[in-house]
Automatic annotation (TrEMBL), chain A:
InterPro entries: NIP7_N, Nip7_N_euk, PUA, PUA-like_sf, PUA_sf, Ribosomal_synth_fac_NIP7, UPF0113_PUA
UniProt-recorded Gene Ontology molecular function terms: RNA binding
Designated name of the protein: 60S ribosome subunit biogenesis protein NIP7 homolog
Biological function: Required for proper 34S pre-rRNA processing and 60S ribosome subunit assembly.
Keyword annotations: Nucleus, Ribosome biogenesis, RNA-binding, Signal
This protein's GO CC annotations: nucleolus
All residue ranges annotated as the PUA domain in the record: 124-199
Sequence similarity: Belongs to the NIP7 family.
Cleaved signal peptide residues: 1-19
Subunit structure: Interacts with pre-ribosome complex.
Automatic annotation (TrEMBL), chain B:
One family name in Pfam for this protein: RsmF-B_ferredox
PANTHER family linked: 28S RRNA (CYTOSINE(4447)-C(5))-METHYLTRANSFERASE-RELATED, NOP2 YEAST -RELATED NOL1/NOP2/FMU SUN DOMAIN-CONTAINING
Highest classification ranks of the organism: Eukaryota, Metazoa, Spiralia, Lophotrochozoa, Mollusca
Active site (catalytic residues): C550 (nucleophile)
Family: Belongs to the class I-like SAM-binding methyltransferase superfamily. RsmB/NOP family.
UniProt organism field: Elysia marginata
Protein name (Swiss-Prot/TrEMBL): Ribosomal RNA small subunit methyltransferase F
Compositionally biased tracts (Basic residues): 40-50, 732-741
UniProtKB/TrEMBL annotation, chain C:
Residue ranges with Basic residues bias: 291-302
Protein name (Swiss-Prot/TrEMBL): Ribosome biogenesis regulatory protein
Chain intervals with Gly residues compositional bias: 308-317
Comp. bias regions, Polar residues: 8-25
Key words of the record: Nucleus, Ribosome biogenesis
Record-level GO cellular component terms: nucleus
Organism: Elysia marginata
Subcellular localization: Nucleus
Taxonomy, superkingdom: Eukaryota
Gene Ontology biological process terms, A to Z: ribosome biogenesis
């Protein structure tokens, strides 16, 4: 044991040199999600893409995984994970693509950055008229008047992906009314609650990731 | 609750102005400064203005009628005017005089900025101008002189009226006003007319005199003479005197002084304006023939430099450098810096194609056209009705706003699929996203930037553009080699003085000096070495480093590359860009490696891109020259075999060195004894003292006087030693693994 | 002998009193005197007070001379700055570790405000110390206390105040001890749960966790509810899987979670099904009621119902769908 100590000291010293000391005393490195976190995360995700989550986990073209880093969930390939873990916790700002973040109370919020994964697998979609496009991109809810099309069978509080008429994904939200109820409400009622839109890339650049 | 504050060491209560005081704007003394903008009218004044305009319109129509049926209509229109004329007119006069003063200033600056041809054209027109000026002066004079000399006033007005046919719109307004005034004084009209005719005659005479004198001026300056130092001072003083004189005399001898003043402007033009510059350049083109006796070339150059500085608002240091870089094309370059480069956008091939994006943008009201033939993804924007940075396509990540020049380093890098690529100074992520697009979102793209705030832009941009193979970190680029160093390609778009993008940031003209350039250069050298260290020479597909800056200074470009060639086992390879100018090999006191010809320079005036420099390096060995010997020694402590090994290493290395360094250098020199000579030579060529040490692998010497620099390399060298195994994870990764389990 | 001694003392005393007072080495207007130590020269170039000179004669000059000499000598005897660095006997005292509050305040940027020591006392109409003996606004000295509204009339308000004060003192003391313990890296004894006015949800679950453990067997045999979640307050730290572990097993775990999540998503749309059933019933009734003749409208609808297209919400064709609802 005694002989081993100098080595240990050297190692510690080196580590001290390389790694910045965190003010909170805990290393903020990446880690896999716990069972509960996975649960809440998948529940939220399934509102938008249903069982298509499986396509994200079980991929043919290589192994991909979710990692939690500073309360945010990132989706990355194995190579990225391995190389990325050589970067120290607080210097690592983003790896792969960010899906969203866990709030302090343990809920999960999807970010607009997940749109690239949600859009292709979306179950329910909403198309906006060109006039309402800009409104949505400024973070407003969608009125009946701005609604172009809507997937049939959309239930209330179902997650929907929002497109413009050129099939360009603009963001996502939650249906405030079911498809049926949408038909006979007046044009100023809110049909889809805004959750995230691509305008946030400009508006919330600092807080997004 | 709320957000936690960052814990600082010394927390002291904040001093200085609080929030409230910050809100208040600084006091401004507009009246004192005398640069009032357009005056805000009070409600009543507005009303009056409106009425006046109505009246004018009426009068115009009435005037048309009057021509058909003479005078009697004119009487009734006069009366209501009297009600408000006194102060309303006064007021307007004031305003107009203000605006005219501004115009005067404008003219000054115009004179300064105008190019040769324009200024010449101006001179031709100057006759016209003289008239104009006269009139303005008259206007300026009226408010004060009004009460004292009604008559004189009337005269000037009359004169105005006579000159009216050539006048501008606003002057017409006044004219119509004065028209109405004239009608008041129609009784005196005969006298006034006589006087004004006299005046007109005199004025014409003056003009012709002025014209003659002007021509004289031009003739005398056909043979350009350099002003001496005293002369320059004198002229400055003269200018001042005459100008102050002007302000005094304006009230008294309006016409004459204005004639004079015009001449002054011309004179000063010939010194600091385009004529002087073109003359000096003309002389410098064939110096021995055209020069004035007893004047050295340097004097002319200095004068040229001064003139250019004055005209384009550069500081002298920068202008000297630019003159050194572009002895012939300096004017083109400077002019090009005055105009912005065309706005270009890059299609994000991860999400769309150029031929899809183009029509879509045109639908939005953006006039685009494919960029030059060398880029398959660029679009040039001519004009746009919508903000380009906020269209749904932009937000959806279909394109990126990016200068054309920033495509170049990425194209030179030519990243392949499934590679590991490092972008060392990535913010704001334009180049990074292009790299990812070329890699088709495979492999790994590590984007790093030292500035944490700017890193956020990288993250946002990469996500927006749908890049999924990225990794964004916030390290100092110089520390990157310790984090991970097995990249296939490295792009270093180094922070620089920005002398290539003056059109984007005018401040560069003034605020850069020698120190800034050298500071940049030093940082760039460190970064480049670090970039080279990060790259893995044993990579199957890569081992390339691309260095680029948006500066055109040789110190920040060729010098840095030359330094890296001496310090690391790298060579320059062609960039793969078939246009652009070759890099310098000889520049002023610098003598660079001949292969620097393979680097590329881009200029605003030749390529209509931002000023840019691109160099592509290939790393052929992971060893660091002058370093591995010492590692060997440390590792094989005391073993005799080390010595022999070192010797062979050294010999090999010298071989490499000589192969690297120019033909002239290597010719007829034995590797073994060339060390000292080479060192001496390098010292002489390279002013930077850093280079002198490790360029030659004289290991004993180096070991004895190990400087901090050396020590650095020592720590880096351990890493290099490990590098022999390709494709491994760095130590930290391993450690984490072990510890975590 | 004694007399002699006495006389000696007397003479000395009288001499000293005669010598006037011996002056100190300090000189009043030192800065007026210019010194040139190399030449042992001291110069006072100031004007002599003529009035004083007339009165006191040369004494003025003498005193000035003395002053100058004194200053000169002072400067001659001045020690130069020390060169060697002498070690301290004791190390520099360490900075006191910040208390928990201080840390918190620092994090939040809360700064200390200096409060004045004296406070205006309404009752006695004078300034009194804020705390301590004879303090201002002393509520322990009240001889009568109003019973507050909706308070128990039989409660002893004096006693209540006293206990509250004691509690506060005790809490403060505990806080102090804990701060000390924390700085010395000693384990702070848990105090269990301090009573609070409005216990939160966390508070309750904490109390529950403590109660669970408070048996002789440290909660080993405590009964649990059938679906009780494990407490958050077990005192154990969370442990996570390694970041670079086996991705295969991780994937399987996630698939399992996904299964459970997707089970929660009902495969049958209940509202939709219920709607359909209701409508079918309605139609049946309508058919029964009405004559055999079916109106033209219904024909199409019947057919679709018969086919039982699952995707359609309303049945019928597009034209009729909207109308029917009204």
């Amino acid at each position: 044991m005694r002989r081993a100590t100098p080595m240990v000291i050297i190692v510690l010293w080196l580590r001290g040199v390389r790694r910045p000391i965190f003010p909170c005393g805990q290393a903020k490195n990446m880690r896999p999600l716990t069972q509960e976190e996975t649960n809440t995360f998948f529940e939220k995700l399934s509102k938008y893409i249903g069982e298509n989550i499986k396509l994200l986990i079980d991929r043919q073209d290589g192994s991909y995984c979710f990692r939690l880093h500073k309360d945010r969930v990132y989706y990355m390939s194995e190579e990225q994970l391995k190389i990325g873990s050589s970067a120290a916790g607080d210097t690592l700002l983003s790896i792969g693509s960010c899906f969203g973040k866990f709030t302090k109370s343990g809920k999960f919020h999807l970010h607009v950055t997940a749109l690239d994964y949600l859009a292709p697998y979306a179950k329910h979609k909403v198309w906006l008229k060109p006039s309402a496009e800009q409104q949505f991109l400024y973070g407003h809810h969608i009125m009946k008047s701005g609604l172009g099309r809507l997937t049939e069978d959309t239930e209330q509080y179902q997650g929907v992906i929002v497109y413009n008429m050129n099939d360009l994904a603009l963001g996502f939200g939650v249906a405030a009314k079911s498809t049926l109820a949408c038909r006979n409400c007046d044009p100023m009622t809110i049909v889809v609650f805004h959750q995230a839109d691509t305008g946030q890339y400009i508006r919330d650049e600092d807080t997004l990731t | 609750m709320g957000r936690k504050r960052e814990i600082l060491e010394d927390d002291k209560p904040k001093k200085g102005p609080g929030r409230k005081t910050k809100k208040q704007p600084a006091p401004s003394f507009k009246a004192l400064l005398g640069d009032e903008g357009p005056k805000k009218l009070s409600h009543k004044q507005k009303q009056r203005q409106r009425k006046r305009e109505e009246k004018k319109a009426e009068k115009a129509s009435a005037g048309a009628k009057r021509k058909a049926t003479p005078t009697p209509n004119s009487r009734p229109s006069k009366k209501p005017k009297l009600l408000f004329d006194s102060d309303g007119d006064d007021d307007e006069n004031l305003r107009s005089s203000d605006s005219e003063e501004e115009e005067m200033q404008d003219e000054f600056s115009e004179d300064d900025v105008l190019s040769d041809s324009e200024s010449e054209a101006l001179e031709k027109e100057s006759g016209k101008k003289a008239k104009k000026n006269e009139k303005k002066a008259a206007n300026a004079a009226t408010p004060k002189a009004k009460k004292q000399q009604e008559k004189g006033n009337a005269k000037t007005r009359k004169q105005e009226k006579m000159a009216a046919p050539e006048s501008d719109d606003e002057e017409e307004d006044e004219k119509s006003d004065s028209d109405s005034d004239d009608e008041d004084e129609s009784d005196e009209e005969m006298d006034v007319e006589k006087a004004s005719k006299k005046l007109l005659k005199k004025q014409k005479q003056d003009e012709s005199l002025a014209q003659d004198e002007l021509m004289l001026n031009i003739k005398s300056q056909e043979k350009f003479t350099l002003p001496s130092g005293q002369e320059i001072e004198k002229e400055d003083i003269l200018d001042l005197v005459i100008l102050s004189e002007c302000s005094l005399l304006v009230l008294l001898f309006v016409t004459r002084v204005w004639g004079k003043r015009d001449r002054v402007v011309n004179a000063s033009n010939s010194r600091s304006g385009g004529r002087g510059i073109s003359h000096i350049r003309h002389i410098l083109a064939d110096f021995s023939e055209r020069r004035e006796e007893g004047r050295s070339r340097k004097e002319y150059l200095d004068q040229l430099c001064r003139d250019l500085c004055a005209r384009f608002n550069y500081n002298e240091f920068l202008m000297e450098r630019l003159l050194g870089l572009f002895p012939n094309e300096i004017m083109d370059f400077l002019e090009a810096n005055e105009y912005p480069r065309p706005v270009t956008i890059r299609t994000n091939t991860l999400k769309t194609r150029r031929r899809d994006l183009g029509p879509m943008l045109i639908d939005r009201g953006v006039n685009v056209e494919p960029m030059a033939r060398w880029s398959g993804v660029g679009l040039t924007v001519f004009d746009t009705k919508v903000p380009l940075g906020a269209t749904p396509e932009y937000l959806g990540g279909h394109y990126m706003l990016q200068g054309g020049a920033s495509f170049l380093p990425v194209m030179a890098l030519a990243p392949q699929e499934r590679e590991r690529v490092l972008d060392m100074c990535a913010a704001p992520g334009g180049k990074s996203s292009y790299i990812a697009a070329l890699m088709k979102n495979t492999g790994l793209l590590w984007s790093n930037d030292a500035n944490r705030e700017r890193c956020k832009a990288i993250v946002s941009n990469l996500h927006r553009l749908g890049v999924i193979n990225s990794l964004v970190t916030n390290y100092d680029g110089r520390a990157m080699k310790k984090v991970f160093h097995s990249f296939d390609r490295v792009l270093l778009d180094a922070p620089c003085s920005g002398t290539g993008v003056i059109s984007k940031d005018e401040a560069v003209k003034i605020n850069k000096d020698e120190k800034d350039i050298l500071r940049c250069s030093h940082l760039q050298k460190e970064l480049l070495l670090s970039a080279i260290d990060c790259c893995n020479a044993n990579s199957k597909t890569g081992g390339y480093i691309v260095y680029s800056t948006c500066s055109i200074m040789v110190e920040e470009n060729e010098w840095v590359i030359d330094y890296a060639l001496k310090k690391r086992n790298v060579k320059i390879v062609p960039c793969g860009l078939d246009f652009g100018k070759e890099g310098f090999v000889n520049f002023e006191q610098h003598r660079f490696h001949p292969s620097l010809r393979l680097t590329r320079r881009f200029y605003p005036h030749t390529h209509n891109l931002d000023g840019f420099f691109v160099a592509k390096l290939q790393k052929f060995s992971n060893k660091i020259p002058g370093e591995e010997n010492k590692t060997d020694q440390v590792e094989e402590n005391g073993e005799e075999s080390a010595k022999s090994e070192n010797k062979t290493d050294q010999a090999e290395e010298n071989g490499e060195d000589s192969a690297k360094s120019g033909d002239a250098e290597s010719k007829g020199k034995k590797a073994a004894n060339s060390d000292t000579k080479k060192q001496a030579k390098q010292k002489s060529t390279d002013k930077d003292s850093e280079t002198s040490k490790s360029s030659s692998p004289d290991k004993n010497k180096a070991k004895k006087n190990a400087t901090p620099d050396k020590k650095n390399f020592q720590s880096g060298k351990k890493v290099a030693g490990k590098l022999k195994k390709p494709g491994f994870l760095p130590k930290k990764g391993f450690k984490n693994k072990k510890k975590g389990n | 002998m004694a007399d002699e001694k006495q006389s000696l003392v007397d003479t000395v005393l009288s001499q000293t009193s005669n010598d006037q007072q011996l002056k100190t080495t300090n000189v009043e207007n030192e800065e007026l005197i210019e010194l040139d130590e190399g030449n042992l020269l001291a110069v006072n170039e100031n004007k002599i007070d003529t009035k004083g000179f007339k009165k006191r004669g040369e004494n003025v000059l003498l005193s000035l001379t003395r002053d100058a000499t004194q200053v000169l000598f002072n400067s001659l005897w001045k020690l130069p700055e020390s060169k060697t660095w002498l070690p301290r006997e004791k190390p520099v005292p360490k900075k006191k570790a910040p208390t928990k509050w201080e840390e918190y305040a620092k994090g939040k940027g809360i700064l200390n405000k200096k409060k004045s020591r004296m406070v205006w006392d309404e009752q006695s109409q004078q300034y009194k110390p804020r705390w301590g003996y004879n303090r201002a606004n002393d509520d322990t000295k009240d001889w009568v206390i109003e019973v507050p509204d909706n308070a128990d009339p039989y409660e002893d308000q004096f006693e209540k105040r006293k206990t509250a004060k004691k509690e506060r003192v005790a809490k403060n003391e505990l806080q102090r001890l804990r701060n000390i313990a924390r700085t010395q890296k000693k384990k702070v004894p848990g105090i269990g749960l301090a009573p609070t006015e409005q216990p939160s949800k966390d508070h309750l679950s904490k109390a529950l966790a403590v109660a669970h453990k408070s048996t002789a067997s440290i909660g080993k045999f405590t009964d649990r509810l059938p679906k009780e979640k494990p407490s958050k307050f077990t005192g154990k730290k969370r442990k996570f899987e390694p970041s670079i572990g086996n991705l295969g097993t991780e994937k399987e775990k996630q698939l399992k979670v996904l299964d459970s999540v997707s089970k929660k998503i009902p495969t049958i749309n209940v509202t939709k099904a219920a709607n359909r059933v209701l409508r079918q019933d309605e139609e049946k009734r309508a058919e029964d009621k009405k004559s055999k003749k079916t109106p033209k409208k219904m024909k199409g609808r019947k057919a679709t119902l018969g086919l039982g297209k699952p995707g359609r919400q309303g049945g019928g064709n597009k034209k009729t769908r909207g109308k029917r609802k009204r």
